[in-house]
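Thread: Newbie trying to understand structure tokens

Hi all, I'm a second-year student working on a class project, and my supervisor (Dr. K.) asked me to get a predicted structure for one chain before our next meeting. I've only ever worked with sequences, so writing a 3D structure as a token string is new to me. If someone could post the tokens and maybe explain what I'm looking at, I'd be very grateful. Here's the chain:
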Amino acid sequence: MKPLFIFEMANNHMGDLEHGLRVIRDFAAVKEQYEEFDFAFKFQFRNIDTFIHPDYKDRMDLKYVKRFTETRLTSEQFATMKSEAEKLGFVSVCTGFDEDSIGLIEEMDFQIIKIASCSFTDWPLLNRIAETNLPIIASTAGSTLEEIDNVVAFFTNRDKDLTIMHCVGEYPTETTNLQLNQIAQLTARYPNIKIGYSTHEDPADPNIVPLAVAMGAQSFEKHVAVVTDEYPKNAYSATPQQVDSWLQSARTAFQVCGDTSTRPPASEKELSDLRRFKRGVFAKRPIKAGEVVSRSDVFYAFPCEEEQILANDMSKYTQFIATRDFDVNEAVHTSEVTTTRLRGKLYEIVQDVKSFLTTSGVVFPKDANLEISHHYGIENFYETGITMVTVVNREYCKKLIIVLPNQSHPEQYHKKKEETFVVLHGDVTLYLDDEEHTLNRGDVITIEPEVRHRFETTNGCVIEEVSSTHYIDDSYYVDPAIVANQNSRSYRDRLSFRKNFSHLP
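---
Reply by user tm_fold:
Sure, no problem. This is what the structure looks like when written as tokens:
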């Protein structure tokens, strides 16, 4: 969605239809230079016959009674200006100050309805506005946070398309009173509401709008006027030339601030400049072709070479396998290894484990460490492998072992640890020194030290393991290929992550 810039004519048509049309046309010429923005033209409606108290209708000594009366236009004249604005590419917006005016806004098919700051908590008016199907833009000058909360809740509970505008109701507003940090506050407070900025500062100052852009404003409103020999302008309305400077400044600000909806890609120059200062990967020991290039096999040093693997690349979720022999201190280049990205595979596994646990109904700690054991490489995990949740590991240890359907765990034994399995869900076939045991939910079996054991399941299972202290070097696999296979991850280098199994770290 493009940023929206609203030109507020208010009563600057001066009660003269032709002058009002000139204002629209002069500002239409300005907007044509800014295709990256959307533009709206805003009018104001008051039913003068009922808006002004009968006893005050003739009080021309009152500034705004005089102003509203002398600049009064007919609905037909407003319709002519609205039509001209829409023909010239403006979205039509109108502020209604009374209930009758809201009906006229609907009747004339305006595209957006505006709530002025003075009407922000005018509840009879708000209730009438809520009856319309129009998007709503509301200015907040003079309102407390509690009042803004109430108005936002009122319209959002009614599924209204709402934009809230930070605004200071001083005409004009001194620069020191603009309080632009309120834009950021409103953005944080109402993350699902569009936030904008309605401005009354010195129209000759284009340096304020970049700050509003930086604070997150996406809609901008400014009073506009055209000066002629017959009609002057007030101190807070901008001429076409001033609006052009304002828009140029906003354009630069949006370019400087960049996109907030996504993380922009780095430029080739940025990547090249940064790479020069990164550390390269060098062999710490002789590495043979076919071996996994692990973090224990390498060191990191400056300067790096072209196409060299960087320290930044040495994630545990990326696997490098050497395609040639490397001597000590040799640089390892991307063309000299086979690279496998594991993050996507691990995320898939986590989701499958999470789904299985949910189906099982087994309660598990929400902030536990999930270990993925894959003995013949991650690519073979669904055939041979398990996942484990460590609940506690002190003098005693408790784990949950999750075995997915059709998974198996290869034969191993422990020299120190004694463990007891309790089947919490599903069924499992356990082999103790080749003696077969079929276990179902609720079954218990103890595995003593030095006893070889392996297990498999057809339907999947969840096992509670209660044992003596788990030692990282106390698992001995019978199949020498598990240790010899450099493409595997065994107990010595398991991958673990938190976050309730929903995301990788």
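A couple of things are worth pointing out once you decode it. Residues 240-257 form the longest helix (18 residues). The first strand starts at residue 4 and ends at 8. Feel free to ask follow-ups in this thread.
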